[in-house]
Amino acid sequence: MCSEDFFKQCIQEELDSTPADSQMRKQMMEALQKMHDEGVEDELLDSDDEEEDLATRLENIDLDNAEAVWAQLTDAERAEFESLVSNGDVEKILPVWTPWWTAREKPLVEEVNKPSGDEPDYPDLIQNIPLFYVICTVKPSPCIEFNMANAVAAFTFTSRHYNGEPQNNATEAATCLMQLSDSLNHNSNFTSTELAVQAVSLHAVNIMKSSPEDTSLIASDVNDILNSKQFVLYALSGATHILSGAKTELKSNKKQIVKPATDKNSKQLFSVRFPQSTASSVSNTEFVLTKSSLNGASKKLEFYMSWVNAYYVGNR
């Protein structure tokens, strides 16, 4: 439905831009989990006639343009959306994202003709990774494993922060990923996995304004991934895709700019009513994402994947 698509997009923007330590984000995530478990009917409009009317109004409107769609809504529809946001009642709109690394291993013996559930949405693996002995002719340092874990930890937090769809906000997601990972951003070295993960948690608190509750899953997420060599490759590939998406956006200069409203109806604009939805969710304004920094981080991830292919075993 057109209305559901728009409301879903707006709620997603609100979710992505909400500080990770806010009570609102917690309530939204709890509501999303409820929707995922139970499923709901779209009840945003009062009648089929109204739905058809809205569909007509949005027929030639770009649903990716929040201002354009917002202008087509009636006062009642706007009030409904504002109520959903203010009350945290979003279980009717968004499905919750379940991280692929929480997927259970398939049993060795399965019931014949038993329908299988949806497969986890694993990231596409990066292909043509160079052999490690080609790119590194010396004995690898033990810190490589810990530095790699630091990048994986940053990836897990970034993925959860963007509800499993960092590609929809590639530049912001890449900024988040880079700021959280000292191994990618500053070529820092770590002496243990624990310290590597703790560094990401600290940055999540200081930069993303997260609470300890919001960062509590980082350690367990990293552990789930590090247990499997394949999962490690998925995570590093996923991080690479985030950086690639940001490079594409920078290259094409695809950045939505909302001009300050100056007319008498400015208070009715979507960007004014919901300023968080048009603002960056990454709080460190001093950090500037550049093509050079993205290329450097991508090469570092490639280095980690090459090392994983050559030396990493995992526990399964």
Task: Give your account of this protein's structure.
The protein is elongated and about 65 Å long. It is built from 14 helices and no strands. It has helices at 2-17, 23-38, 48-57, 66-72, 75-87, 132-135, 143-161, 170-180, 182-185, 193-206, 216-226, 229-252, 270-273, 291-311. The chain is an all-alpha fold and 316 residues long. The protein has two domains: 2-87, no CATH class; 120-260 and 280-311, no CATH class. Helix 7 runs antiparallel to helix 8 (170-180), helix 7 (143-161) runs parallel beside helix 10 and helix 7 (143-161) packs across helix 11.
Give a topology summary:
Blueprint: H1 2-17, H2 23-38, H3 48-57, H4 66-72, H5 75-87, H6 132-135, H7 143-161, H8 170-180, H9 182-185, H10 193-206, H11 216-226, H12 229-252, H13 270-273, H14 291-311
Helix pairs in contact: 7-8, 7-10, 7-11, 7-12, 7-14, 8-12, 10-11, 12-14
Outline of this structure?
By secondary structure, the chain is an all-alpha fold.
Spell out the key features of this protein.
316 residues; mainly alpha; 2 domains; elongated; single chain
The shape is: elongated
User: Based on DSSP secondary structure assignment, what is the total number of beta strands?
Assistant: 0
Termini Cα gap: 43 Å
The residue fraction in helices comes out at 55-70%
Mean of the pLDDT scores? 77
Task: Tally the structural domains.
Answer: 2
> Which class best fits the helix and strand makeup?
mainly alpha
Report on the biggest sheet.
none
Q: Could you list the spans in which at least 5 consecutive residues all have pLDDT below 50?
A: 19-23, 35-50, 106-112, 254-261
Report Rg: 22 Å
- Number of helices, counting only DSSP H or I runs of 4 residues or more: 14
Give helix and strand order, one letter per element, not per position.
HHHHHHHHHHHHHH
Strand content: under 5%
